[in-house]
Amino acid sequence: MASAFTTTDGAASVESSSSAVNWGPIIAGAFAASTLTFILMLLGSGLGLTMVSPWSNEGTSVTTFAVSTAIWLIIVQWFSSGFGGYLTGRLRAKWVGVHTDETYFRDTAHGFMAWALATLIMVFVLGSALSAAIGTGVQSASTIASGAAIGASAGASANADGTSVSGATSYFVDTLFRPSDPARLAAPGAEGDAAAAAQASRILIAGVTAGDLSADDKTYLGQLVAARTGLSEADANARVDAVIAQANEAKVKAQEAADTARKAAATFALVGALSLIIGAFIASAAAALGGKQRDDEETVYLTQRS
To answer: What is the pLDDT of residue 158?
Structure first.
């Protein structure tokens, strides 16, 4: 019966006592890749924030910002993964008595492991910093897109008695109660102004949420506007219809902005995953290239020395 440690032709099999994995080059390549990734991320974040303007209708759109960021992620993966993988291949110890195909496989595996370790470092150690760096620009672009949709209704306004009006409808309420005679602006407000503004705000919120105001709410709102501004009932109703149309238009634009941001986020996630796959491939190929150059350089050196 043949021994378990012999081959079929009787020759004893030889097994190396050392592992085929060189963790030193893997760790070194991973740290180099993660450091370069962080530097390039900060550079890309700085360049990306210059594309975003705090003013309406200026700067790039959310989609453009997300796509450009995703493309930058691919570029970052090219540079960092290639650099880390190449270092891993050049720094590993030479394998003696190993077939060329096996050497290529080990170098490729070492590059992949260096990329995987670098990715884990970025996720668990530097994840919060990267989220702050990248998320700031994306959040700014999203805020601008949604802010452009509801423009002047961004802040809350206060009445004379200190009570506040909802920030989402303050502009529309001001439009409703804008006096027909500018001289009314200097006149002291009536005691019921705050209650009228609060009622109008709640009516507008309910109407915009439901899609349209009921006939009773619209009639009552027209009466409030007529009593507050001195307009005729017909003019007050016309103003109510105009403001409701503006509010519905702002709602539609806000929904479109949210949908655009959602699609941009999905595109960013897909391209980000693609960039990681590309990074894994580049790191593996770069490690194989670095390992081959390392062995070739040593072969040339030994030949010249002999």
So the answer is: 47
Closest CA to 243 of 214, 209, 204, 216: 204
Output the CA–CA distances (angstroms, integers) from residue 299 to 27, 97, 124, 230, 267, in the order listed: 26, 14, 40, 97, 48
Q: Is the dihedral angle over the CA atoms 112, 113, 118, 121 positive or is it negative? A: positive
Two tokens, residue 121: 């470092």
Could you read off the pLDDT of 92-146 as tens digits, one per residue? 888 777 888 888 999 999 999 999 999 888 887 665 655 554 555 555 545 544 4
More confident residue, 147 or 71: 71
Q: Which of 272, 277, 281, 279 is nearest to 70 (CA)?
A: 272
Render 39-58 in DSSP notation, one character per residue.
HHHHHHHHHHHTTB-SSTT-
Look up residue 234 and give its two tokens: 């017909």
pTM for this one? Answer: 0.57
| Of 86, 90, 104, residue with least CA distance to 297 | 90
The letter for the amino acid at 65 is F
